[in-house]
Design a protein that fits this description.
Elements lengths: L6 E6 L2 H10 L13 E5 L5 E6 H7 L13 E5 L3 H13 L3 E8 L4 E7 L5 E7 L5
Parallel strand pairs: 1-3, 4-7
Antiparallel strand pairs: 2-3, 5-6, 6-7
Length: 133
């Protein structure tokens, strides 16, 4: 048997703010989870997404420090249509989350935008552009 991809784990320095961000994007995160040091949800298709607070990470990796600089990964959320990309970007930035790249029509045929979650991780919003007539 070969290993099977199963979980994306992220460290967070503010569990409540992080979970609020991902709840706004539609993830079904249980109420009260923000008080836990480890939270995970199962996404459609079975992949799990998990967050550990800084103290939890340091419990098994005492030398861990939050990364700095630009994100090295991003999570991409498909929206229903290009207008939804704009709407979600506006809603999240108006709620105080960091917008990195405002929505644009990408040359690869998608409406695209990039935000950062509260820990600076890249979060992309995208939707296919209508085909040109």
């Amino acid at each position: 048997m070969t290993p099977r991809f199963d979980l994306i784990g992220m460290a967070t320095t503010d569990m409540a703010r992080t979970l609020d961000f991902y709840r706004r994007l539609g993830l079904d995160i249980p109420p009260g989870a923000e008080s836990q040091p480890h939270v995970e949800v199962t996404l459609p298709g079975g992949i799990r997404l998990a967050w550990d607070d800084a103290e939890m990470v340091r419990s098994f990796d005492p030398d861990w420090t939050p990364p700095t600089g630009s994100p090295r990964h991003s999570l991409a959320f498909r929206c229903a249509d290009p207008a939804e990309v704009d709407r979600w970007y506006a809603e999240l930035t108006e709620a105080g989350y960091e917008g990195h790249l405002k929505p644009w029509d990408a040359f690869w045929g998608q409406r695209y935008a990039v935000l950062h979650d509260p820990d600076g991780n890249g979060v992309d919003l995208f939707a296919p552009l209508p085909e040109a007539d």
